[in-house]
Write a structure and sequence with these properties.
Elements lengths: L2 H13 L14 H12 L8 H10 L7 H14 L2 H12 L6 H20 L12 E2 L2 E10 L7 H17 L3 E7 L3 E7 L6 H12 L6 E8 L6 H15 L1
Antiparallel strand pairs: 1-2, 2-4, 2-5, 3-4
Helix pairs in contact: 1-6, 3-4, 4-5, 4-6, 5-6, 7-8
Length: 244
């Protein structure tokens, strides 16, 4: 196969990506990300021959292949950064082997990064977060609360949604979802890498408070995971204790 043909195949793969890869679109648990990075750091990729990699790849779909062996195969394929290795990981991911879904996703994203770098003759990194993202925007989970734990009125809910949507537009961000509870609201927001997350949130709170000062200035934001309801309520209790 000629270099031009290989480049065309890489472009076909990258064509499926909305823009240049900056954010891993699929969110993966942070502890699994750490495990994957530590695992790959300890691998000696030079010791694997083409024949060995080919044989291991063929055993990847087999139910008789131990999970630890599959993890190793996927990591090796990811670091090869070839069209063939990308397609192999992609096919395996589509088999739906749930215990390795997150690991396979990380391997596919890493392989995609190597493919792009080889085509563009440059070295770019990839940001992986627990909540994923879109194009150059990581996804954040945000909690804001009402002042004095008062229940949100219908007018206040409408104000928060309108203001945060406007602020997000101003900062090239996307308000994906907003949910109101009795005395707090949660949001999923996509915010570009070159925008300060706190600025978006604080301007949203500040401008909402021009219509009655009903939001507490304290907030919680993360891109690692979506907290459980019990974790959210504990956070709200901690904030209340700090204020008092």
């Amino acid at each position: 196969m000629t270099n031009d043909e290989t480049d065309d195949q890489i472009r076909d793969i990258l064509h499926d990506i909305p823009e240049r890869l900056k954010i891993a679109e699929e969110g993966v648990d942070f502890s699994l990300q750490q495990e994957y990075l530590e695992f790959t750091q300890n691998l000696d990729f030079d010791k694997y021959s083409e024949e060995d990699i080919s044989a291991r790849s063929q055993s990847l779909p087999s139910k008789n292949t131990p999970h630890e062996d599959k993890k190793e195969i996927l990591a090796i394929l990811a670091h090869r950064g070839t069209v063939e290795s990308y397609r192999t990981i992609e096919r395996f991911l589509k088999t739906g082997e749930q215990e390795l879904e997150g690991w396979s996703t990380l391997a596919l994203q890493e392989c995609r990064m190597f493919l792009e770098n080889s085509l563009l003759d440059r070295s770019d990194g990839m940001l992986m977060t627990g909540l994923g993202g879109e194009n150059n925007r990581p996804r954040y989970f945000l909690i804001i609360r009402s002042r004095s734990d008062a229940a949100f009125t219908s007018a206040q809910k409408a104000t928060v949604e309108r203001v945060f949507s406007s602020i997000c537009d101003r900062f090239d961000s996307i308000l994906e979802e907003i949910q109101f509870h009795l005395n707090y609201a949660t949001m999923k927001v996509l915010i570009p890498l070159d925008v300060a997350v706190g600025e978006v949130i604080e301007k949203g709170i500040g401008e909402s408070n021009k219509f009655g000062g009903f939001l507490d200035p304290y907030y919680f934001v993360t891109n690692v995971k979506i907290p459980k309801e019990t974790e959210i309520l504990e956070y709200l209790r901690e904030i209340k204790r700090d204020i008092e």
